Amino acid sequence: MREELLRVDDLAKYFSMTSFFSLFGGKGAELKAVDGVSFSIDKGETFGLVGESGSGKSTTARLITRLVDATRGKVHFEGQDLLEMPRSAFHKFRRRIQMVFQDPYTSLNPRMRVRDILGNPVKLHNIVPTNQVGDRVVELLELVGLQAEHRDRYPHEFSGGQRQRISIARAMALEPDLIIADEAVSALDVSVRAQILNLFRQLQRTKGLTYLFIAHDLSVVDYFCERVAVMYGGKIVEVGAVEELFNKPAHPYTEALVSAIPEPDPSREFRPRVLHGEMVNLIDRPPGCVFYGRCPIAEPVCGEVEPPLERKSGGRQVACHLR
Ligand code: SF4
Known about the structure:
Radius of gyration: 21 Å
Strand order of the largest sheet: 6-7-8-3-9-10-12-11
Number of helices: 11
Helix content: 25-40%
Number of strands: 12
Mean pLDDT: 92
Bound molecules: iron/sulfur cluster
Shape: globular
Largest sheet: 8 strands, mixed
């Protein structure tokens, strides 16, 4: 039976922009980085969030983990609203939601040895008694395919793939339920990328992890995720099971994204759909559909009325007047 772990409801982040007018007391413009995002993730599920740069994927992750304060919306984790609770209470939940970032070199302190990078959070959160922290560090290294002797090295002494393994070990140090992987394999070579994805899978099997997997590369999401939400201009435009959504995309933006996935079979035609027009201006966005300026099938109504994200057959959700 499916059990919901995370539910995001109408999440939004507007950044106010200092403008000529606001300097003189007028109303400053707002950049709507995330605007009314809703989705849910079940326990043990791998849920992808895809879209091009600036679509609001990473801001959504930062809102969930309260690294950025939300303008509005709710984030329920096991039924409790993370955004409503005091910081002290949130600290307890934060341990259960860990992030793995794109660039392990900048997310790992270059002046700390691996034993401290992994040992400090274990000590801080009292995961094991103090005299067992050293053993726990070795366990964590072995969990991610490294060895005990690696604990005395600094981050710069590792390859990119090994550094990402250390980042994953650091996330696992706090025994999380949910890992938010934000472009966690984007900077890695293709062969190393496959190894890290396999490590994520293995950890899911052995530790029962749930993933929110953020990526711009659809082939990675196709390989790794069960369901996916497609973001464009700070909004979710389509949600569905990966296989169905990639085989039969409904939203015109998803169609364009899917058409750009390289075709591994050279005998099959590869014709990526080129989008014309400009990305929507997130500052004082015009009314209507967020994809209106680039949509090849747009009609006049699209420029006036914003399409809601509506549930279709088979659990698919689509925000489009015509689909
Ligand atoms: Fe295109 Fe209109 Fe659908 Fe938006 S609502 S995706 S502009 S057809």
